[in-house]
Write a structure and sequence with these properties.
single chain, 5-stranded antiparallel beta sheet, 3-stranded antiparallel beta sheet, 4 helices, about 25% strand, globular, binds magnesium ion
Length: about 260
C-alpha cells in the first residue's frame, strides 16, 4: 500500500476498515436511538444530552463535541436549517417539523459520521417527499462508490436524483474523506460530471452526505456562526453514511 498521496487521501487497509466498523456501528446506533426519541415537545438539547450519554456509555467519544469549537454531540437542524444546528433547550420540536440529525462517534481513535432527517409527528406530503428523495439520492451516490469510478460519478448520481425530483442540491457543503480524522481529503461533491474528479480506489473511506432543498440551493450561515439555513426559508433534508470503497463494492460502515 501507499503511505502518502500528494492529494492527502489516506488509503485504509482492510483491517483498518474492519476497525472503523466499530465507530461506524456506534454512530449508527446513536443516530437511530436519537431518531426514536424525536417527537413534538422534545428539545434538541434533550436529544443532544441523550446522544452524549449513549456514546460515552458504549465506550466511545462524541466526535462532534469540541470539533472546531462545536458545542454539541449532535447537529440538530430544523426545517429550513440545512446543517450544523446547535442543540438548544429553546429549539423545541413541534408537530409537522422535519429535523436533520448529524452525529458521530470516535472508537479506538477511528471516527464514524452519519445523518438522517426525521419527521416530527405528521408532516406534509411535500416534506415527506423531500426526505425520501434525499435518502434515495444518498443511496444512488453510495452505489457509485466503487473502484474505477470517479468522485464525479457519485456527485452526478446524487444530483440527478435530487434535481429530477425538482429539488436543489446545496453546493457550499460536501461529503468528505474520513478515518482517524472526521474530515480528511477528498471533498465529496453532491454534483458533478460522470468520469470527472478523483479516481476512486480500494481502501478509500468517504462520507457521502447530500443536502437537498425544496427551493433554492442557496444557503447562508446564521449569526451563531454554525447554523446553515436556506436563503428562501424553505425546508432542507440531509442524509449521510460513512462508506468504504472495496473490491467487493461499497461497504456502509455506519450500520446499526
Ligand atoms: Mg459528514
Amino acid at each position: 500500500m501507499r503511505f502518502f498521496r500528494p492529494d492527502g487521501i489516506k488509503i485504509k487497509t482492510s483491517s483498518q476498515i474492519e476497525a472503523m466498523k466499530e465507530a461506524g456501528h456506534l454512530s449508527a446506533q446513536v443516530l437511530r436511538e436519537v431518531g426514536a426519541r424525536i417527537s413534538p415537545g422534545v428539545s434538541t438539547l434533550e436529544l443532544d444530552e441523550f446522544a452524549e450519554e449513549y456514546i460515552r456509555a458504549a465506550g466511545g467519544v462524541p466526535a462532534f463535541k469540541g470539533y472546531g469549537g462545536f458545542p454539541g454531540t449532535i447537529c440538530a437542524s430544523i426545517n429550513e436549517m440545512v446543517v450544523h444546528g446547535i442543540p438548544s433547550k429553546d429549539a423545541v420540536l413541534k408537530e409537522g417539523d422535519i429535523v436533520s440529525i448529524d452525529t458521530g462517534a470516535t472508537v479506538n481513535r477511528w471516527v464514524g459520521d452519519n445523518a438522517a432527517t426525521f419527521a416530527v409527528g405528521n408532516i406534509s406530503e411535500d416534506a415527506q417527499r423531500l426526505i425520501d428523495v434525499t435518502e434515495v439520492a444518498m443511496w444512488a451516490g453510495i452505489e457509485q462508490a466503487v473502484p474505477g469510478n470517479h468522485l464525479g460519478d457519485i456527485g452526478h448520481a446524487v444530483q440527478e436524483v435530487a434535481e429530477s425530483a425538482g429539488f436543489g442540491v446545496v453546493r457550499e457543503y460536501t461529503g468528505h474523506g474520513i478515518g482517524r480524522k472526521m474530515h480528511e481529503p477528498p471533498s465529496v461533491y453532491n454534483y458533478g460530471q460522470p468520469g470527472w474528479g478523483t479516481l476512486l480506489e480500494e481502501g478509500m473511506v468517504i462520507a457521502i452526505e447530500p443536502m437537498v432543498t425544496m427551493g433554492t440551493f442557496r444557503v447562508r450561515t446564521l449569526e451563531d456562526g454554525w447554523g446553515v439555513v436556506t436563503r428562501d426559508g424553505k425546508p432542507a433534508a440531509h442524509f449521510e453514511r460513512t462508506v468504504a470503497i472495496t473490491a467487493d463494492g461499497p461497504v456502509v460502515l455506519t450500520e446499526a
